[in-house]
Amino acid sequence: MNQDTVLLMILLMSCVVLVTRIGGYALGLGFQKTEKLRGILEVLPGCAMMALIVPGAINGALFEIIALCLTSLTMWKTGSVAAATLLGLGILLGSSLI
Predict the structure, then answer these.
(1) 41 with 28: CB under 8 angstroms?
(2) Model confidence over 2-35: pLDDT tens digits?
(3) What are phi and psi of 56, to 5 degrees?
(4) Are 88 and 67 a contacting pair, CB within 8 Å?
(5) Which of 48, 57, 65, 73 has the largest CB neighbor count within 10 A?
(6) Burial degree of 67 (CB within 10 A; 0-12, 13-18, 19+)
Protein backbone atom coordinates (compact mmCIF):
# COMPACT_ATOMS: atom_id res chain seq x y z
CA MET A 1 0.00 0.00 0.00
CA ASN A 2 1.51 3.32 -1.00
CA GLN A 3 1.71 6.51 1.02
CA ASP A 4 -1.05 8.31 -0.90
CA THR A 5 -3.50 5.49 -0.29
CA VAL A 6 -2.76 5.48 3.43
CA LEU A 7 -3.24 9.24 3.70
CA LEU A 8 -6.48 9.02 1.73
CA MET A 9 -7.71 6.29 4.08
CA ILE A 10 -6.90 8.40 7.12
CA LEU A 11 -8.69 11.44 5.70
CA LEU A 12 -11.72 9.35 4.77
CA MET A 13 -11.65 7.79 8.22
CA SER A 14 -11.79 11.25 9.75
CA CYS A 15 -14.87 12.00 7.67
CA VAL A 16 -16.51 8.75 8.78
CA VAL A 17 -15.79 9.59 12.41
CA LEU A 18 -17.27 13.06 11.97
CA VAL A 19 -20.41 11.67 10.30
CA THR A 20 -20.87 9.02 12.99
CA ARG A 21 -20.52 11.59 15.74
CA ILE A 22 -22.98 14.01 14.14
CA GLY A 23 -25.32 11.22 13.07
CA GLY A 24 -25.19 9.60 16.49
CA TYR A 25 -25.95 12.91 18.14
CA ALA A 26 -28.84 13.65 15.76
CA LEU A 27 -30.32 10.18 16.18
CA GLY A 28 -29.73 10.27 19.92
CA LEU A 29 -31.91 13.32 20.34
CA GLY A 30 -34.98 11.17 19.80
CA PHE A 31 -33.97 8.38 22.19
CA GLN A 32 -34.17 8.17 25.91
CA LYS A 33 -30.65 8.47 27.29
CA THR A 34 -29.44 5.27 28.92
CA GLU A 35 -25.95 4.21 29.93
CA LYS A 36 -26.01 1.31 27.49
CA LEU A 37 -26.85 3.54 24.51
CA ARG A 38 -24.27 6.10 25.59
CA GLY A 39 -21.56 3.42 25.78
CA ILE A 40 -22.36 2.18 22.29
CA LEU A 41 -22.27 5.67 20.79
CA GLU A 42 -18.94 6.44 22.44
CA VAL A 43 -17.12 3.48 20.86
CA LEU A 44 -18.43 3.91 17.30
CA PRO A 45 -15.75 6.39 16.11
CA GLY A 46 -12.93 4.18 17.29
CA CYS A 47 -14.48 1.17 15.59
CA ALA A 48 -14.78 3.08 12.32
CA MET A 49 -11.17 4.23 12.58
CA MET A 50 -9.81 0.75 13.19
CA ALA A 51 -11.99 -0.82 10.48
CA LEU A 52 -10.42 1.48 7.91
CA ILE A 53 -6.81 1.43 9.09
CA VAL A 54 -6.09 -2.08 10.32
CA PRO A 55 -6.47 -4.06 7.05
CA GLY A 56 -3.99 -1.86 5.20
CA ALA A 57 -1.56 -1.39 8.05
CA ILE A 58 -1.20 -5.06 8.96
CA ASN A 59 0.54 -5.80 5.65
CA GLY A 60 2.17 -2.38 5.52
CA ALA A 61 5.63 -1.03 6.02
CA LEU A 62 7.20 -0.45 9.43
CA PHE A 63 6.00 3.16 9.72
CA GLU A 64 2.44 2.16 8.89
CA ILE A 65 2.44 -0.43 11.66
CA ILE A 66 3.99 2.08 14.08
CA ALA A 67 1.33 4.64 13.09
CA LEU A 68 -1.40 2.06 13.72
CA CYS A 69 -0.05 1.13 17.16
CA LEU A 70 0.48 4.70 18.31
CA THR A 71 -2.87 5.85 16.93
CA SER A 72 -4.59 3.02 18.80
CA LEU A 73 -2.72 3.81 22.00
CA THR A 74 -3.53 7.52 21.71
CA MET A 75 -7.23 6.79 21.14
CA TRP A 76 -7.25 4.46 24.13
CA LYS A 77 -5.40 6.77 26.52
CA THR A 78 -6.85 10.15 25.52
CA GLY A 79 -10.16 9.27 23.89
CA SER A 80 -9.40 12.02 21.40
CA VAL A 81 -10.08 11.15 17.77
CA ALA A 82 -8.42 14.38 16.64
CA ALA A 83 -5.21 13.74 18.58
CA ALA A 84 -5.00 10.16 17.34
CA THR A 85 -5.60 11.18 13.73
CA LEU A 86 -3.03 13.97 13.86
CA LEU A 87 -0.45 11.67 15.42
CA GLY A 88 -1.03 8.98 12.78
CA LEU A 89 -0.81 11.53 9.98
CA GLY A 90 2.32 13.03 11.47
CA ILE A 91 4.06 9.67 11.62
CA LEU A 92 3.15 8.83 8.05
CA LEU A 93 4.12 12.23 6.74
CA GLY A 94 7.36 12.11 8.71
CA SER A 95 8.17 8.69 7.30
CA SER A 96 7.86 10.04 3.77
CA LEU A 97 10.58 12.60 4.55
CA ILE A 98 13.07 9.95 5.65
Answers:
(1) yes
(2) 888 888 988 998 898 889 888 877 877 777 777 8
(3) -75, -35
(4) yes
(5) 57
(6) buried
Q: Above 70 in pLDDT, residue 43?
A: yes
Query: Do 22 and 48 contact (CB within 8 A), yes or no?
Result: no
Q: How many residues does the chain have?
A: 98
Q: d(Cα 92, Cα 13) in Å, to the nearest integer?
A: 15
Residues 6+ apart with CB under 8 A from 37: 28, 31
Query: How would you write the chain as a 3-class SS string?
Result: CCHHHHHHHHHHHHHHHHHHHHHHHHHHCCCCCCHHHHHHHHHHHHHHHHHHHHHHHHCCCHHHHHHHHHHHHHHHHHCCHHHHHHHHHHHHHHHHHC
User: What residues have CB less than 8 Å from 17, skipping those under 6 apart?
Assistant: 45, 48, 49, 81, 85
The phi, psi pair for 13, rounded to 5°, reads -60, -40
